[in-house]
Amino acid sequence: xxxxxxxxxxxxxxxxxxxxxxxxxxxxxxxxxxxxxxxxxxxxxxxxxxxxxxxxxxxxxxxxxxxxxxxxxxxxxxxxxxxxxxxxxxxxxxxxxxxxxxxxxxxxxxxxxxxxxxxxxxxxxxxxxxxxxxxxxxxxxxxxxxxxxxxxxxxxxxxxxxxxxxxxxxxxxxxxxxxxxxxxxxxxxxxxxxxxxxxxxxxxxxxxxxxxxxxxxxxxxxxxxxxxxxxxxxxxxxxxxxxxxxxxxxxxxxxxxxxxxxxxxxxxxxxxxxxxxxxxxxxxxxxxxxxxxxxxxxxxxxxxxxxxxxxxxxxxxxxxxxxxxxxxxxxxxxxxxxxxxxxxxxxxxxxxxxxxxxxxxx
Length: 362
Fold this sequence. Notes:
Elements: H1 13-22, E1 29-33, H2 40-52, H3 62-68, E2 75-78, H4 87-97, E3 107-111, H5 122-129, E4 135-141, H6 149-153, E5 156-159, H7 165-174, H8 179-188, H9 193-200, H10 205-213, H11 215-218, H12 223-261, H13 270-307, H14 318-337, H15 344-361
Parallel strand pairs: 1-4, 1-5, 2-3, 3-4
């Protein structure tokens, strides 16, 4: 039996092994959890293909070919029609789940963005509690909020983790990216392959990288310098998030226009969508700042490594070693505290002031 559809899923060996083992005798519902860019959707589609193929995903038969183009009559993909997965969306999924398969031995109902169904989830619950014998549900979600715990309890969870930097770098290198640049982008991707691909196409990425690398040599012991540098770093982060914000605004405008064309006075679920956009933007900002802290930490680590090399007279400067080590510890502590600070600017200023004091002491 071939399961070549899973070959596209990178760095998720445990999840893929679970899915492959489930092909011959699947249960009625699987919950794919984890961050975007981790390969969960690719895995779900590969699993769907394997479930519909009489040979478990041979890759060459008509069932596999139709699945690969999302045109198999027994593969139902349910996407939200508005800002959230509405009651109507999930009722439609439940209705489709009751039908008999048209060509395969079973049908697969794949539901995306289940985390946007916190209010409508009960519309699917009864179907999951009394599932049709020939239907398999594949549910995709970023996380499991309290409103979805009951749904999750009816499913086999298939967890996906952020990808390892080495996995992301290897993918980028295979796509023609210079190895050193691929490694740099991979370290900044936060394990999100989608983010890595965005960074490849981001013309300002290199400038942001150099900005973070310049921090140690620009700190001079003055608070005003640290504050100005903190503002510069936050402005660079704002610029990095700007394309995502623009895409979200365009999506909101498109959905609003479609809703008005259908006679709606406003976009149903608009608040839920804007909240989801805000969460995505906060995650992107956090990833960007963590990546910057990683660059800053590696910069001090390089200085530390250089300090270990004997200088004139064969001496190693103990003060340099101590201060670089203290700087790395300060950055690690700041990274842990990041999510608990209401102001990014004040948090970053505090870190840079601490690093500046260490620089002055050195």
